[in-house]
Design brief:
There is one protein chain. This protein has about 130 residues and is α+β, with helices and mostly antiparallel strands. Helix content is about 30%, strand content about 40%. The protein has one domain (about 5-125): 2-Layer Sandwich (GMP Synthetase, Chain A, domain 3).
Length: about 130
């Protein structure tokens, strides 16, 4: 379990299933410009994303000293602005999690490759503020 908070109305929990659902929803808003990937550069086409389990195959959760971190693995399509889409994705994921549990999470996007006709492996990490 990544985070748990007790409120008068009950317990709010952020685990891998909830985080995975948020990530899939936010990535799907980019209309295929960003694809989810695993840490070993295997990417998932958009039609298979809905079938992916929300178990952390495409992200890692962690944290130390009270800081919560979320690392999301993606592949981007050729011609897409790395800075632009990663900034938007980091903001969208962070805001969705904050709205849900009221806690800030440090989101990092790891670009595992660029996809055109061929796949070119990369290892670019973009960290949220």
């Amino acid at each position: 379990m990544f985070y748990e908070r007790t409120t008068p109305g009950g317990v709010i929990t952020l685990d891998k299933g909830v985080a995975g659902s948020i990530i899939k929803r936010e990535v799907s808003r980019f209309d295929g410009k960003i694809l989810l990937s695993g840490p070993k550069s295997k990417y998932y086409k958009n039609e298979t994303v809905d079938k992916l389990a929300d178990d952390g195959a495409f992200f890692d959760m962690g944290g130390a000293d009270g800081e919560r971190t979320l690392r999301v693995y993606v592949v981007i399509k050729l011609g897409v602005s790395i800075g632009g889409v990663t900034e938007q994705l980091i903001k969208a994921i962070s805001e969705s999690i904050f709205e849900l549990i009221g806690v800030k999470v440090c989101v990092s996007i790891i670009i595992k490759g660029v996809l055109s006709k061929n796949f070119s492996k990369r290892e670019i990490e973009v960290n949220g503020k």
